């Protein structure tokens, strides 16, 4: 099992550490050329400040990585990007890219989605491991089952335990040997992971204009629906609205169904009825497919029939 120590901005750390009880953060990188692929979901990602502050100051648990327009990263995570506004976030991107302010470009940035972030007070900062080199630009991975990596993870766990911080996702183990657990997703991570899982295409129409696509909960979070991939579908925004209000649904055999109420109430709906009965484009993996229980719930509780 690995951990990654990523170098981060002091302002980003200070801003996020001041927010109460946040459940996720976007550790974004100004360059959007390459996705982060070092960790598996559930493995720890630790924050190290820029030199000369050579300390580990917090971390989180890796869920997913993506390359996104800054506007979508802001829509999904808001201040959990570590800035007060999209404009402030854009200024930081430009600073690290060493570029002149551009008012129209929607910058592509690397996004590392981290769940259950934790931040250490200054007296609990951890010095970097002995093999850390100042020439490292982005970060370094460690095997946390032995050597310096294990020592580092032990130091992290001691601080978490002292502050009664619950680590990882579902508590099947606490502070013993490293165990890889599937992290609980926040709202922003749910939105991005569903978008990428559906290959950035509407499950019904295959529309791929990214600003027009929205990750829908099948069973809403407000009704105890989880932020899990099998409770999500990617829809074009108009279809999402109709789905949430019960004018369309998904059948248990993954077909699109349109209610007669659209025609009855609005004397319209031709474009939607043309999609009636169409098979959905869904992930092939069983654990990623919309779960039967959530589809049945939507059919019984929301769909207008």
Number of strands: 11
SSE class: alpha+beta
- What percentage of amino acids are in beta strands? 15-25%
Mean pLDDT: 92
| Regions with little confidence, pLDDT below 50 for 5+ residues | 168-175
List keywords for this structure.
Archaeosine Trna-guanine Transglycosylase, Chain: A, domain 4; 7-stranded mixed beta sheet; alpha+beta; 305 residues; elongated; single chain
What does this structure look like?
By secondary structure, the chain is an alpha+beta fold. The protein has 2 domains: 2-162, Roll (Archaeosine Trna-guanine Transglycosylase, Chain: A, domain 4); 198-301, no CATH class. Helices cover 27% and strands 23% of the residues. It contains 9 helices and 11 strands. Strands 1, 2, 3, 4, 5, 6 and 7 form a 7-stranded mixed beta sheet that branches. Strands 8-9 form a two-stranded antiparallel ribbon. Strands 10-11 form a two-stranded antiparallel ribbon. A hairpin with a 5-residue loop joins strand 3 (44-49) and strand 4. The longest helix is centred in the middle third of the chain and has 16 residues, at 147-162.
Concise overview:
The protein is α+β, with helices and mostly antiparallel strands and 305 residues long. It has nine helices and eleven strands.
List the helices and strands and how they pair.
Layout: E1 2-8, H1 10-17, E2 24-29, E3 44-49, E4 55-69, H2 70-77, H3 86-97, E5 108-119, E6 126-127, E7 139-143, H4 147-162, H5 187-197, E8 213-217, E9 232-236, H6 237-244, E10 248-250, E11 256-258, H7 261-266, H8 270-273, H9 292-301
Parallel strand pairs: 1-3
Antiparallel strand pairs: 1-7, 2-5, 3-4, 4-5, 4-6, 8-9, 10-11
């Amino acid at each position: 099992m690995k951990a990654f120590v990523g170098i981060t901005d002091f302002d980003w750390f200070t801003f996020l550490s001041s927010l109460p009880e946040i459940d996720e953060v976007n550790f974004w990188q100004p360059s959007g050329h390459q996705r982060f692929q070092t960790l598996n979901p559930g493995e720890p990602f630790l924050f190290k400040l820029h030199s000369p502050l050579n300390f580990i100051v917090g971390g989180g648990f890796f869920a997913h990585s993506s390359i996104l327009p800054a506007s979508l990263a802001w829509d999904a995570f808001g201040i959990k990007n570590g800035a007060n506004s999209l404009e402030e976030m854009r200024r930081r991107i430009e600073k690290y890219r060493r570029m002149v302010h551009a008012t129209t470009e929607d910058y592509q940035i690397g996004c590392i989605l981290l769940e259950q972030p934790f931040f250490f007070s200054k007296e609990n900062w951890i010095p970097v491991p002995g093999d850390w080199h100042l020439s490292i630009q982005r970060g370094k991975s460690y095997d946390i089952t032995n050597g310096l990596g294990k020592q580092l993870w032990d130091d992290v766990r001691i601080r978490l335990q002292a502050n009664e911080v619950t680590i990882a996702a579902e508590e099947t183990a606490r502070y013993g040997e490293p165990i890889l657990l599937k992290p609980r997703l926040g709202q922003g991570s749910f939105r991005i992971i569903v978008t990428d899982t559906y290959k950035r295409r509407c499950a019904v129409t295959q529309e791929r204009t990214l600003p027009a696509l929205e990750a829908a909960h099948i069973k809403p979070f407000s009704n105890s629906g989880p932020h899990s991939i099998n409770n999500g579908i990617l829809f074009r925004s108009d279809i999402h609205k109709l789905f949430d209000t019960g004018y369309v649904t998904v059948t248990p055999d993954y077909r699109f169904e349109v209610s007669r109420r659209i025609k009855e109430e609005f004397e319209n709906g031709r474009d939607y009825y043309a999609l009636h009965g169409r098979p959905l484009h869904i992930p092939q993996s069983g654990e990623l497919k919309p779960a039967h229980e959530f589809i049945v719930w939507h059919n019984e509780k929301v769909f207008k029939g």
